[in-house]
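Data's thin. Show one?
=====
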Amino acid sequence: MRRDQFLKSAAAMAAFGAFGALPLNARAAVAALKILVPANPGGGWDMTGRALGKALQDAGAASAVTFENKGGAAGAIGLAQFVNASKGDPNAMMVMGAVMLGGLITSKQPVTLTQATPIARLTSEYNVFVLPAESPFKTMKDVVDALKKDPGSVKWGGGSRGSTEHVAAAMLAHEVGVDATKVNYVAFRGGGEAVAAILGGNVSIGGSGYSEFQPYIESGKMRPIAVTAPQRLPGLNIPTMKELGYNVEIGNWRGVYAPPGITPAQRQALIDMVVKATQSKAWAEALAKNGWTPAVLAGKEFEDFVEREFASLRDIMHKSGMV
């Protein structure tokens, strides 16, 4: 009897092609994935990584996702760890974005992005500049007037050196005839630290993606005064820098990389998983909740995009006197 049951089971498995003929959602998900966030908790990269992890599971592309935060140097410290410790691991990914490019340009780190494997761009987001609720400044013009009078008196707070909000501050200084190297920029290792500094009045003005500031703007603890987008963000009454007369436009995109040393097939598998995750309900909810613009770009197209972004950012930073 046991032999007959075994043969019936074997025949059934063969008929289904050893699970190959089962619908995708009935197959076992891949092994657990590890996502490195090269920043402290609470910021845009952290939010992106955790939203992606949830979407990967929601889409059935991963059985489990674990996270590790490793902040510092615009992500370069995390990048170095990722390149060295995760080499050849087909189940590891790292969150990154425009901020990392700027940081690598300004700090001249020994580790480079070319040592890792591009997977996909996920989102795009523009920077919002905010004032603490009790700030003596009311508008961006007030900030610019103070900047012209004494550049050091305006303390800008945001992400790492070379972040998009840092570049935007330097671009603004250059626009209004102020030496961009005199911009008093305070870099924080994560969005949570920057938010605390703004709420505590330890900086004059702060910049980041709207999603990081949203609860504080809605509660009245922060006052938004400008956005670096080409037009106003949908549903938000925040003027653009260009609308205010300053030719400053810069976007902040985010994506994921894999470690070095994986095979082309393993890279494609990760690309397919990430693209599938961005088509899930969980990802759609994350986009809506955080005000992120979907900007999926995968594989070679993403790799080429990053190269162009490096060149463009270097040019802007040179013109603005940052490097």
User: Anything to note?
Assistant: The two ends are 78 Å apart (CA to CA).
